[in-house]
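> example.struct
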């Protein structure tokens, strides 16, 4: 048995990770087992044909980022006679969002090769043990939890858009709801075959043909064998910044979220921690940091080839002067809207060796199809507006899509010589970056315990739109002073603001954790 704790988006997800720890696995084994179990624990929130970003810290303190987000397809140059790329409108209450589904909405998936590579590189348990909890649930059935039911209701236009989706997600002519049993024995067969054959043989003999049949050019998509053969899992160094004497580890490029979080933290560090506790000063500082981080990204994306644009976290200067002015003056904005909710989930784990792991992964909202007879739901990442600066679906073939996914590690110095370690991350599309920054501020500026830090009210400022949770701490502030073009108020605990699942090991070895109730979060610890 390995002592540790894991947090994630459903009881089924975290139970699989806890089982891996109880079987002697480490934090990576827990993360990988939990990811497989999302297929039944969070069946509408992500998929094993999506993409993800992983953060790993080994007991020596070395931190590595695993990038297995999706690539854009199209390397073959072949185009379908009739491109299957359809719009679907989803009503989220405060906003109606348009998504694209169909075969041409599918990007090259990376989560399965990424999980297998991470398990082989750092894990202890064999793959068949890591898929076992998921396979039991997929065969025996698991009742859908309350958050999953809400998510299913929102995504019904996509989930029920195909015959395979209706077989999987409908009961008596309606979309599945809370308490309805989720089963998918064919996916259990798939995972057991994967464990038996290994990733490379399974991909070559089974999955690749099924992917091409479902989303290749003959099916109206863009996927080709060249795309699948070109894909590679990448392991790289993290981006490391200091925030009030704590070290924060984040994913670097090509992921976009880590550098934006680093920039926001560099702005907020100019503000006395006492002013980031609550009230209008906190709101102004957060909104100004969010606004300027967006502007930094826009400047970098519009730079000429070969032109270097220094990030605020790397070089203090004009951007920090602008932040100092902006947080005290009205924030100008453009008429726009915050986009997307993001069907993304996050899992965090830590063990008593000091090994840490966090993974964020997504399939968009799904493209409405299953991959052949595998039971794996296909992604619609090429149809996700939040991933594209310009026209949705247009990206250089073979290149990684940009993502806000930012599994994060905070390493805090301790007088004992050991470290207080905290792993966190979030789903939520463009709100990932702002949810993480607010959580870091709650933990380090306000020194809040993890549960309070997770549940504290949030805001998100983007494109001149100020979104905020309608809690007493925020609702009575004079929001007009922030200069937003438009205000959007949400009820407390709305999934729009992400799902920040957190685990922490103190310098004395004690574990704490929290799952974000906004996205059905929970946690589970394995102790002596």
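> example.seq
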């Amino acid at each position: 048995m390995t002592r540790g704790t894991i947090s994630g988006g459903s009881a089924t997800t975290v139970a699989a990770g806890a089982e891996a720890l109880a079987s002697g696995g480490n934090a990576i084994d827990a993360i990988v087992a939990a990811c497989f179990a999302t297929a039944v624990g969070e069946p509408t929130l992500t998929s094993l044909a999506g993409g993800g970003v992983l953060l790993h810290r080994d007991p020596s303190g070395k931190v590595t980022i695993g990038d297995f987000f999706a690539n854009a397809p199209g390397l073959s140059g072949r185009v379908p006679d009739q491109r299957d790329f359809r719009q679907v409108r989803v009503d989220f209450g405060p906003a109606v969002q348009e998504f694209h589904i169909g075969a041409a909405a599918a990007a090259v998936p990376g989560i399965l090769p990424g999980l297998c590579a991470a398990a082989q590189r750092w894990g202890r348990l064999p793959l068949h043990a890591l898929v076992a909890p998921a396979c039991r649930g997929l065969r025996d059935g698991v009742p859908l939890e309350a958050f999953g039911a809400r998510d299913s209701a929102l995504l019904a236009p996509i989930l029920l858009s195909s015959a395979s989706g209706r077989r999987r997600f409908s009961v008596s002519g309606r979309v599945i709801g809370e308490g309805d049993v989720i089963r998918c024995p064919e996916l259990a067969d798939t995972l057991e075959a994967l464990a038996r054959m290994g990733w490379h043989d399974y991909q070559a003999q089974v999955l690749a043909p099924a992917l091409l049949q479902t989303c290749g050019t003959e099916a109206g998509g863009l996927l080709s064998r060249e795309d699948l053969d070109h894909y590679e899992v990448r392991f790289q160094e993290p981006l490391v910044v200091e925030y009030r004497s704590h070290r924060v580890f984040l994913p670097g490029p090509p992921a976009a979220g880590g550098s934006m979080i680093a920039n926001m933290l560099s702005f907020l560090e100019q503000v006395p921690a006492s002013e980031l506790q609550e009230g209008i000063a906190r709101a102004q500082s957060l909104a100004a940091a969010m606004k300027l981080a967006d502007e930094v990204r826009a400047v970098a994306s519009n730079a000429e080839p070969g032109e270097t644009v220094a990030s605020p976290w790397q070089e203090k200067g004009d951007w920090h002067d602008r932040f100092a002015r902006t947080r005290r003056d009205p924030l100008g904005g453009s008429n726009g809207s915050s986009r997307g909710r993001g069907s993304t989930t996050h899992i965090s784990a830590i063990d008593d060796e000091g090994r840490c792991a966090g993974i964020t992964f997504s399939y968009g909202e799904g493209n409405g199809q299953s991959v052949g007879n595998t039971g794996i739901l296909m992604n619609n990442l090429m149809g996700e507006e939040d991933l594209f600066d310009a026209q949705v679906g247009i990206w250089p073939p073979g290149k990684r899509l940009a993502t806000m996914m930012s599994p994060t590690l905070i390493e805090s110095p301790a007088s004992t010589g050991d470290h207080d370690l905290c792993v966190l991350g979030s789903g939520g599309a463009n709100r990932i970056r702002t949810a993480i920054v607010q959580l870091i501020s709650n933990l380090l500026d306000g020194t809040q315990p993890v549960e309070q830090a997770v549940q504290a009210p949030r805001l998100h400022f983007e494109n001149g739109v100020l979104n905020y949770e309608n809690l007493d701490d925020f609702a009575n502030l004079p929001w007009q002073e922030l200069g937003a073009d438009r205000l959007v108020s949400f009820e407390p605990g709305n999934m729009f603001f992400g799902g920040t699942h957190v685990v922490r090991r103190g310098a004395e070895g004690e574990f704490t954790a929290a799952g974000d109730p906004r996205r059905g979060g929970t946690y589970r610890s394995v102790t002596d």
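> remarks
Residues 279-301 form the longest helix (23 residues).
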